[in-house]
Design a protein that fits this description.
The chain has six helices and twelve strands. The protein is an alpha+beta fold. The protein folds into two domains: 29 residues; 187 residues, no CATH class. It has a seven-stranded antiparallel β-sheet with strand order 3-2-6-10-11-12-5, with helices on both faces. A hairpin with a 2-residue loop joins strand 7 and strand 8. The longest helix is centred in the first third of the chain and has 28 residues. The protein is elongated, with a radius of gyration of 26 Å. The chain starts with 6 loop residues before the first helix and ends with a helix.
């Protein structure tokens, strides 16, 4: 049995095929390009914005040197006239990415967990990460964040500006961030949460680090800046 070609096939010209191919390609490029543009300009922030006015001081360490940067600090005739604000700006930028990049990373989750890592006290944190790290200390009367425990291993991390704390919630008095082993890429980062008020403890007491936040970002520029600080 002979199969006859439909008549419309005989009417298709080479010009029509090329036109349809170009049009279809243009639609694909336009569709994927628009989607990529929208995803590319949609910012995603890992870590948490830290309000300057809530901070009492920032302690930086590099090569086992340390310095407390106070909120009002200005250093005259220095390459780092405003190291306090620069650290906060770089920390904010470190966690900023976009949904297009996350599309290829699988949109990693940020979690808060019980601290089972080796840096369980501020003294061990200093020992392990004294070569490059920062600790952000909040004023006791202006703690910005608190931790809520729902069950043995289920925690929430909240900002007071957006959530009401309850009587059994735990204030976060400091956030300690190691900057060692940092490369110029988007990777997992750990924030250690100090939930004891150092002002209410004996001077020199090693404070327990009860929880950690597993977050993500590119901390290379922050590491590089802190590594070069020499303020005493």
């Amino acid at each position: 049995m002979k199969i006859r070609k439909p008549n419309f096939i005989n009417n298709i010209t080479r010009k029509m095929v090329v036109t349809w191919a170009v049009l279809f390609t243009a639609l694909l490029v336009l569709g994927f390009g628009t989607a990529s543009l929208v995803l590319g300009v949609t910012h995603t922030q890992y870590g948490h914005y830290i309000e300057r006015n809530n901070i009492m001081r920032i302690e930086y360490r590099n090569g086992y040197r340390s310095k407390d940067l106070m909120r009002e600090m200005r250093v005259e005739n220095s390459l780092h006239q405003n190291a306090f604000d620069e650290i906060l700006n770089l920390l904010q930028r470190a966690g900023r990415t976009n949904n297009l990049s996350n599309l290829f990373r699988g949109n990693p989750d940020e979690t808060i967990e019980r601290n089972t890592l080796s840096a369980s006290h501020t003294s061990t944190f200093y020992h392990l990460y004294g070569q490059n790290s920062i600790i952000i200390w909040f004023a006791p009367q202006r703690t910005q964040f608190f931790v809520r425990q729902y069950s043995l291993n289920d925690f929430g991390f909240y900002e007071r500006a957006h959530h009401t704390a309850q009587s059994n919630d735990t204030n976060v008095y400091a956030i300690a961030i190691p900057l060692v082993n940092t490369s110029n890429t988007f990777q997992s980062q750990t924030w250690y949460l100090v939930t004891r008020n150092e002002m209410a403890e004996r001077q020199g007491t090693s404070l327990q680090i009860a929880n950690v936040i597993q977050t993500h970002g590119n901390y290379y520029h922050l590491w590089n800046f802190v590594n070069g600080l020499s303020l005493f």
